Amino acid sequence: MKTAAHDIRYMTRALQLAARGRGRTSPNPMVGAVVVTGRRIVGEGFHRKAGAPHAEAVALQAAGSRAKGGTLYINLEPCSHTRKRTPPCVPAILAAGIRRVVVAMRDPNPQVNGEGLRRLTRAGLSVTAGCLERQAEQLNDSYVHRMRTGRPLVVLKMAMTLDGKTATAAGESQWITSPEARRHAHHLRSQVDAIMVGVNTVLADDPQLTVRLGRPIARQPLRIIMDSGLRTPMTARVLSQRLRKGTLIATTHRAPHARLARLRQRGISVLVLPGEKGRVSLRACLRQLARMGVNRLLIEGGSELAASALQAGVVNRLHLYVAPRLLGGTNAKGAIGGSCPPQLARALSVSALSVKKIGPDLLIEGAL
Asked: Active-site residue 133, yes or no?
């Protein structure tokens, strides 16, 4: 059945509203809602942050009595369960006297997944699903991925020269890319729930792993260090008094117990996970992060962690910042470590490539 033009128009508005919550709603999805009566918008709203009222509640409150007999447009199926911090939305929709609900997509959360739509239908409302479904899935791709796979959506970000080098043979890497590219990378950080690096990056660069955009942000992402031997020094900036609360070290059962106890005594969170080939199992770590509500994870380095993530098949997106420089030399650090596959046929294929200029650098994006 062909979707009516006015349904597309109002759902487009709901999607625009939903996008205003980007970077603030996790572990929840981004949701926007529009109340229409007589082809006129009488109320609208979006989910501003986790723990705040849901989009439907905000839009219905704005509409007040004008919502009666109207149509509610939502980019995601309304919730009906009570296992969360905010009240379910289906009872509020029914109480407002809404007669028709248009939904872009069903909620893949097993606690919802069609139940909200069924309750609305049983109550006698007209329910239409699938309006701009593809756009709705794209908007909440991280949330959808976590619900369907039990893992966060993983973005691998690397900065390199034109010949694929990330550092000199002596380990110097700051800075390969321009200030413009680095500002863009901080914007990318602001859109994720967690940033992951390997312990070698901590030892070499002592990063803060924070978002620094020159203005206040809603929240800092969780900082994760993959450290199977607990080599992260107590003096590392990510373990400073200011940053340790939002830092998590992932290690294995082989880690020194005295070191583990000392870190925990200092109030540092350490997650002990299964090992794989002497390192923390990435898949086990991602499953745990998903249970913690991490929808989108940014892997920043270094080359061995990048190789492990690619070999484990957990990378979904690529962000490659490429500087117009050539380092050369077989002893310079390459972007991806590990072992080279024996045949070209086993090389990983990247799809949906796009290239744009950021200052003097290039940003190459792709999907795996």
From this structure: no
CA 50/CA 240 separation, integer angstroms: 27
Beta-bridge mates of residue 181: none
Helix runs in the chain, H state only: 5-18, 55-63, 89-95, 115-122, 133-139, 141-149, 179-190, 199-205, 257-265, 282-291, 303-312
Report the DSSP beta bridge partners of residue 120. Answer: none
Work out whether strand 269-273 and strand 247-252 pair parallel, antiparallel, or are unpaired.
parallel
pTM over 0.70: yes
pLDDT in tens, 49-95: 988 999 999 999 999 999 999 999 999 999 876 555 567 889 999 99
Q: Are strands 222-226 and 361-367 parallel, antiparallel or unpaired?
A: unpaired
User: What is the rounded CA–CA span in Å between residue 322 and residue 2?
Assistant: 44
Catalytically annotated residue among 56, 77, 115, 300: 56
| pLDDT tens by residue, 264-291 | 999 999 999 999 888 999 999 999 999 9
Given a contact cutoff of 8 angstroms between Cβ atoms, the answer to whether 356 and 367 are in contact is no
> Quick check: 167 and 335 in contact, CB under 8 A?
no
